[in-house]
């Protein structure tokens, strides 16, 4: 059932994984040896930077912009839902969507979040200044993918077009801004490791603004 | 470094093809294993503005950390991403040309102090400080460092210190500081030790202490004497600063590091102690070994850590009542956020003052005073530097403190200017001065 669509989607997923891995290896480039004498715990600091440091209590960007932070979280919840539904459709399309009501609702809310972020970028002078076409394309592709997942979950869209949407999204993922799916955690690991090595992180005692 | 190499070091490239080739190679080297992780993390959400003292005081899009980072990242994308190669307009990728690099100068040097606060508070965790320094690496490689900043680096390479103070001047200053100290402490044994081999501690200071503000040098000598420390400075290489960190010229930074570290070895010191200098601490303690590609033979720490050890071990006795005014502490970005020296200065101040209060925010979340990143030497950005210091000025005012302890001489210079401009009515002191004033002899 849907053999061609599933193969195309799986191939796109493999392409995305391979290209992201290649980019990570290029960014690493053999790495850097640190010759200074360590003062702290890089491991604990990396853990901190991937967890507590991302919470509003520690992250000013989230604390000062709770609404936008919530919208961002909503968008990424929708992405996660869409990916799970896509993987399920690739493996067993005949089983239909997983938990359709919950998935569809979350994805629908996420689409609203995605469209808000797209509109915000288009309307804000500051964001327009720093944006390139890829910022709009990436937002549109993501919102489209989540919308497809929502429609699939609600039974409006068949598995076949959803898998085609999925294939396109995975194809685009390693090319533009969506690469942050990899480089966001990687940058948190890198910065956390360096700040931990020097003893700055973890930082539970800082007084916030 | 030979004279020829020093001259080549400061010569701007003129051939466009050579500029592009050199810049591209410098970008590749700077990005590998560091900034390359962060270029593609930034999602340009624009939520980083409030974390930047420059944007907070002048909220134009050009000052947004993400926008500054995007300028550097645009060059990386052009050569190191698929779409950047085949459809650069789509991903905002730019070709490295002399003109494009000229535009980068202001973003990299004039609109960012590399304080790194935005990176800690970034939605995704992109280290904008690392990205901007990669940009400075590229600009330094093609000779586009702002001339006044480059002049400081040149001074350090040619004379061993950033203010081109001669060894004789250093010895003269040490002599009269010693004389004043003997009178003040009533102890004929106290002196500023210079060029004495076999001492345990090799002390590096900011040339500002020698030339303009000898009080902190005097205080350090007094504290060392009170602790019974065996210490010396060198009349040749005593500069704790390293403007190669700011200019982005890692080879110059390595040469500056090497001359001081080798001097410590030559004098047979067991430990290098760094005076209160934010970027000097970061440069020597953390970046230096990597610039040199080897571990130092002599261990190194800040005088803040050493003074805490003296206090804990009872090697110096203090009376906090001698510092009765309210004291607050400025956290220099390169000492605290990038240096990991967060608590020692606090514990020292709690022991030597009676009314110590924190600024808000503090520690790794501190705001830059505005004088970092070499800003103090780049007069062309002076107005922006002072304006951006308003954030720090208001932090200080809110504490109600009479004294600001600033464990960094660059920060102290900026804070003195902010004190006048924003009428704060505070005294700016090094931590060692407060320790010295609290000494019980």
Regarding quaternary structure, what we see is: heterodimer
Count of discrete domains of chain B:
3
Number of strands of chain B: 8
Alpha plus pi helix count of chain B? 21
Radius of gyration of chain A: 20 Å
Shape of chain A: globular
The name CATH uses for the topology of the largest domain in chain B is Rossmann fold
The description of the largest β-sheet of chain A is:
none
Which segments of chain B are poorly predicted (pLDDT under 50) over 5 or more consecutive residues? 1-10
Ends apart, CA distance between termini of chain B: 46 Å
The assigned CATH architecture of the largest domain in chain B is: 3-Layer(aba) Sandwich
Helix/strand-derived category of chain A reads: mainly alpha
Overall pLDDT confidence of chain A: 94
The residue fraction in helices of chain A comes out at: over 70%
The pLDDT mean of chain B sits at 95
How far from one another are the termini of chain A? 57 Å
Which percent band covers the strand fraction of chain B?
A: 5-15%
**Helical content band of chain B:** 40-55%
- Element order of chain A: H for helix, E for strand: HHHHHHHHH
3D structure, described in words:
The complex is a heterodimer of chains A (209) and B (441). Chain A has helices at residues 3-28, 42-50, 60-63, 66-91, 100-123, 125-130, 133-153, 159-172, 180-198. Chain A has 209 residues and is mostly helical. Chain A has one domain (3-17, 38-198): Fumarate Reductase Cytochrome B subunit (Up-down Bundle). The model of chain A has no long low-confidence stretch (mean pLDDT 94). Chain B has 441 residues and is mainly alpha-helical. Chain B has three domains: 3-144, Fumarate Reductase Iron-sulfur Protein, Chain B, domain 2; 162-308, Rossmann fold; 317-438, Rossmann fold (3-Layer(aba) Sandwich), CATH 3.40.50. Helix content of chain B is 53%, strand content 6%. Chain B is built from 21 helices and eight strands. Chain B has helices at residues 3-9, 16-39, 53-57, 65-80, 82-86, 98-110, 117-121, 128-141, 147-159, 167-185, 207-211, 214-226, 244-247, 250-266, 278-292, 303-313, 344-352, 382-388, 390-399, 409-421, 431-438; strands spanning 201-204, 231-232, 271-274, 300-302, 326-329, 355-357, 403-405, 427-429. In chain B, helix 10 packs across helix 12 and helix 17 (344-352) packs parallel to helix 21 (431-438). The longest helix of chain B has 24 residues, at 16-39. The termini of chain B are far apart. Classes of the chains: A mainly alpha (209), B mainly alpha (441). At the A-B interface, helix 1, helix 3, helix 4, helix 6 and helix 7 of A face helix 2, helix 4, helix 7 and helix 15 of B.
């Amino acid at each position: 059932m849907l053999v061609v669509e599933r193969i195309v989607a799986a191939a796109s997923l493999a392409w995305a994984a391979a290209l992201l891995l290649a980019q990570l290896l290029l960014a690493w480039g053999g790495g850097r040896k640190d010759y200074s004498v360590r003062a702290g715990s890089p491991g604990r600091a990396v853990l901190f930077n991937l967890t507590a440091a991302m919470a509003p209590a520690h992250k000013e960007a989230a604390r000062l912009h709770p609404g936008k932070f919530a919208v961002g979280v909503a968008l990424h919840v929708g992405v996660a839902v869409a990916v799970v539904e896509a993987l399920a459709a690739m493996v067993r399309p005949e089983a239909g969507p997983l938990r359709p009501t919950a998935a569809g609702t979350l994805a629908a809310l996420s689409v609203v979040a995605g469209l808000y972020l797209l509109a915000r970028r288009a309307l804000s002078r500051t964001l327009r200044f720093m944006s390139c076409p890829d910022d709009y394309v990436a937002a549109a592709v993501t919102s489209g993918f989540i919308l497809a997942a929502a429609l699939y979950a609600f039974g409006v869209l068949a598995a076949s077009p959803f898998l085609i949407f999925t294939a396109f999204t995975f194809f685009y993922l390693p090319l533009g801004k969506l690469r942050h799916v990899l480089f966001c955690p990687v940058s948190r690991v890198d910065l956390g490791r360096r700040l931990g090595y020097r003893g700055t992180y973890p930082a539970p005692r800082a007084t916030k603004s | 470094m030979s004279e020829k190499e020093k001259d080549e070091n400061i010569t701007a490239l003129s051939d466009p093809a050579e500029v592009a080739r050199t810049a591209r190679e410098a970008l590749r080297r700077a990005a590998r294993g560091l900034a390359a992780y962060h270029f593609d993390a930034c999602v340009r959400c624009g939520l980083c503005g409030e974390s930047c003292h420059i944007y907070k005081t002048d909220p134009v899009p050009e000052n947004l950390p993400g926008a500054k980072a995007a300028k550097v990242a645009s060059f990386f994308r052009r050569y190191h991403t698929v779409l950047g190669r085949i459809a650069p307009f789509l991903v905002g990728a730019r070709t490295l040309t002399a003109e494009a690099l000229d535009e980068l100068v202001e973003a990299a040097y004039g609109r960012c102090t590399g304080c790194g606060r935005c990176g800690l508070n970034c939605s995704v965790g992109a280290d904008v400080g690392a990205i901007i320094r990669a940009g400075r690496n590229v600009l330094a490689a093609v000779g586009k460092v702002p001339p006044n900043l480059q002049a400081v680096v040149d001074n350090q390479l040619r004379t061993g210190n950033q203010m081109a103070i001669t060894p004789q001047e250093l010895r003269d200053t040490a002599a009269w500081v010693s004389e004043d100290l003997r009178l003040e402490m009533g102890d004929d044994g106290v002196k500023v030790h210079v060029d004495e081999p076999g001492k345990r501690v090799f002390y590096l200071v900011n040339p500002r202490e020698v030339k303009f503000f000898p009080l902190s040098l005097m205080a350090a000598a007094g504290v060392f004497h009170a602790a019974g420390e065996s210490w010396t400075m060198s009349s040749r290489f005593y500069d704790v600063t390293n403007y190669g960190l700011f200019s982005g010229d890692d080879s110059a930074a390595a040469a500056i590091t090497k001359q001081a570290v080798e001097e410590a070895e030559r004098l047979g010191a067991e430990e290098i102690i760094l005076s209160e200098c934010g970027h000097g601490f970061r440069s020597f303690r953390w970046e230096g070994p990597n610039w040199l590609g080897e571990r130092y033979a002599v261990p190194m720490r800040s005088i803040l850590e050493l003074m805490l050890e003296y206090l804990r071990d009872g090697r110096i006795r203090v009376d906090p009542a001698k510092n009765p005014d309210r004291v607050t502490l400025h956290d220099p970005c390169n000492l605290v956020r990038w240096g990991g020296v967060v608590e020692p200065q606090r514990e020292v101040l709690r022991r030597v003052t009676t009314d110590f209060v924190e600024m808000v925010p503090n520690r790794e979340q501190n705001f830059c005073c505005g004088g970092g990143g070499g800003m103090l030497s780049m007069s062309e950005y002076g107005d922006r530097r002072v304006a951006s210091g308003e954030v720090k000025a208001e932090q200080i005012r809110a504490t109600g403190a009479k004294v600001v302890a600033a464990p960094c001489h660059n920060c102290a210079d900026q804070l003195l200017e902010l004190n006048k401009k924003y009428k704060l009515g505070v005294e700016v002191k090094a931590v060692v001065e407060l320790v010295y004033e609290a000494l019980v002899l």
